[in-house]
Amino acid sequence: MASWLEQLQRELAARGLTVASIPGKGRGLIATCTFFPGDVILNQEPYASTPNKILVGSSCDHCFTSGNLRKCSMCRVTWYCSSNCQKEEWKLHQLECRAMAALTEDRKKMLTPTIRLMVRLALKRKLQNEKVIPSSSIDNYNLVDGLESHISKVDENQLVLYAQMANLVSLILPFIELDLKEIAQTFSKFACNAHTICDPELRPLGTGLYPVISIINHSCVPNAVLIFDGRTAYVRALQPINKDEEVSISYIETATVTKKRNNDLKQYFFTCTCPRCVKGFDEDALLEGFRCKNQACDGFLLPNSGKKAYTCQKCGASRDVEEIKNMRSEILQLSDKASSFLSSGNKAEAGSIYKIIEQLERNLYHAFSTTLLHTCETLLKIYLELQDWWTALTYCRLTIPVYERVYPPFHPMIGLQFYTCGKLEWLLEFTEDALKSLTRAADILKVTHGVKSQFMKELFGKLEEARAEVSFRLSSRHGHDE
Ligand SMILES: C[S@@+](CC[C@H](N)C(=O)[O-])C[C@H]1O[C@@H](n2cnc3c(N)ncnc32)[C@H](O)[C@@H]1O
Known about the structure:
alpha+beta, Beta-clip-like, Serine Threonine Protein Phosphatase 5, Tetratricopeptide repeat, 3-stranded antiparallel sheet, 17 helices, 15 strands, globular, binds S-adenosylmethionine
């Protein structure tokens, strides 16, 4: 019989892919045919998954939707949206239910998503071994076994924590014989292989282990993107991927400077050598740096050798260090004030202060600065919550050029921002602008999200409505002209 690896390679070959060893990266996924933007390179159900919010019930354990949730009356931990979803999960949940129902209320509070993911993984392994649940070439424990753990690099404190977590899992599952060392190592695998399951608007819902998708390595300029529909993971091409090219996705938020990205990648134990990380410097100065004092110049500043002034790299004008320091400290004081208003729920007051911060930052930072971008994103969120559509639209529009500068052309964040912009323009009856924004959103999100999900159907519906309204307005305008 073919080994699990041969079976996996056979399955992947049918999809135009192969697993190969890549110098300095371990395994990686390589294309054996050409993929075009929007093509599904790989899709997979999780080996194990869990919603992030457990006891409060934020999404269905099976399909991850959020409406109509009902708690399992036996264990009072698991939530389902329908009896169909409950049935689909039953073989696995039957054992989990017994284990959870036996827990004290205090123990139930210790069920973090990571613990729950491990409980489900151990149960699925048992049930697949006993052939109660079928296995396949892309859904079997050997694939989990083959994942990178980096256990020898994990620090002492973390190892102690993994050992305690393994003990807790064995208390929850007293009816399964568990190898505690192996469980601790699997927690370490979760840290560098598990994926955050997000809704179509990229809001986190849960955590899942997708052992074939976990073979894909990271790049800060990825050629593919991972998007979820429910808990099914889809990897789609963002650009043409040629035969023999490695498929890459991004593990982290990439609209940040090299130092921050490297820091965010620490949990994966490697230093990224993608073209962006190698080149870094000028882009970082643009994303993090100060603007030229000459309002007509779009250059960015770099510090002089004595660090007493900053010089514009375009026109040569310099800016005094003291002036920059004073502006930064004023912004810092205002930020403290704004975030305390925000945490006390006073959004209107917080919004007014963030508006002042945004103006100050516009004088200090380059227009593509991520600091300024984050302030605009905060203002967008605040004014959406306050239902002040006009102000929200102003800040939404300000973020788009920066997104277009920091993300590749087909990036979900750009598509989603155009979608928000289009919805706001529609509400404010800027119908022609709405049509343009919704068209841009659909063009990008078709590539990243495909065309079949409910989310995309809603977007196409809105686009059709905007198209009909614009042509109605045009025809009535022509009618008046005649
Ligand atoms: C999700 S796994 C990817 C598959 C992994 N290469 C393997 O052999 O199973 C994540 C791990 O792969 C490696 N990795 C991912 N992207 C990398 C990159 N760009 N450069 C070097 N190593 C990378 C790191 O060891 C990281 O912890």
